[in-house]
Specification:
The complex is a heterodimer of chains A (110) and B (114).
Chain A (H helix, E strand, L loop, with lengths): L3 E4 L2 E5 L4 E7 L3 E9 L5 E6 L3 E5 L2 E6 L4 E6 L8 E9 L7 E2 L3 E6 L1
Parallel strand pairs in A: 2-11
Antiparallel strand pairs in A: 1-3, 3-8, 4-5, 4-9, 6-7, 7-8, 9-10, 9-11
Chain B lengths: L4 E3 L2 E4 L5 E6 L6 E7 L6 E7 L2 E5 L7 E4 L6 E5 L8 E8 L8 E2 L3 E5 L1
Parallel strand pairs in B: 2-11
Antiparallel strand pairs in B: 1-3, 3-8, 4-5, 4-9, 5-6, 7-8, 9-10, 9-11
Classes of the chains: A mainly beta (110), B mainly beta (114).
Chain lengths: 110, 114
């Protein structure tokens, strides 16, 4: 099945810093979503982005489908950005399920 | 904004007991899913459900698991005889699969098997 690799596994930032999270996937995808899992365990949709670039406030994401990677940019990080960021993809050759990466754990300190 | 709702939010059960986790997907969605996340690990796909039948399942979804859509709104996951290793967060999700195929997740049900 499709493999999803996220990097870095852990990231520690000072408030106000910028960061880039990466997601590599091993095959073509129909769907790619970025999620933020908050300290209460909730999975918050950030972006639906199988290709192209989107921006939402301080967050933006870019997926280059032909090169099989996606990037999540966080600018001017805040302590509330802390948590785990997951990339999840839907394999275009398989069913409709999202396959998750292992996540990037972000800690932002004030 | 419409959301996926799950009950209970937390459940503690004795090993060997049956558990039913309930979900109300977003009303105009057609595909429904259950995922689980063992503490500290990644989110894993269990099963997808479309047109009143299972469309896809993972190796995790063995004979102790079953899903059902008993009426027009609820979607349930039953674990027949719980084991310690079933302790996890269980997420329900749904999508329309027309246009933008965003999959929306519920807040999860924490299951602790003792």
């Amino acid at each position: 099945g499709i493999q999803v690799e996220q990097s870095p596994p852990d990231l520690i930032l000072q408030e106000g810093a910028n960061s880039t999270l990466r997601c590599n996937f091993s095959d073509s995808v129909n769907n790619l979503q970025w999620f933020h899992q908050n300290p209460w365990g909730q999975l918050i949709n950030l972006f639906y982005i199988p290709s192209g670039t989107k921006q939402n406030g301080r967050l933006s994401a870019t997926t280059v489908a032909t090169e099989r990677y996606s990037l999540l940019y966080i600018s001017s990080s805040q302590t509330t950005d802390s948590g785990v960021y997951f990339c999840a993809v839907e394999d275009s050759q398989a069913g409709t399920a999202l396959i998750f990466g292992k996540g990037t754990t972000l800690s932002v300190s004030s | 904004e419409p959301e996926v709702t799950q009950t209970p939010s937390h459940q503690v059960t004795q090993m060997g007991q049956e558990v039913i986790l309930r979900c109300v997907p977003i009303s105009n969605h057609l595909y429904f899913y259950w995922y689980r996340q063992i503490l500290g690990q990644k989110v894993e796909f269990l099963v997808s459900f479309y047109n009143n039948e299972i469309s896809e399942k993972s190796e995790i979804f063995d004979d102790q698991f079953s899903v059902e859509r008993p009426d027009g709104s609820n979607f349930t996951l039953k674990i027949r005889s719980t084991k310690l290793e079933d302790s996890a967060m269980y997420f329900c999700a749904s999508t329309r699969r027309t246009g933008e195929n965003t999959i929306y997740f519920g807040e999860g049900s924490w299951l602790t098997v003792v």
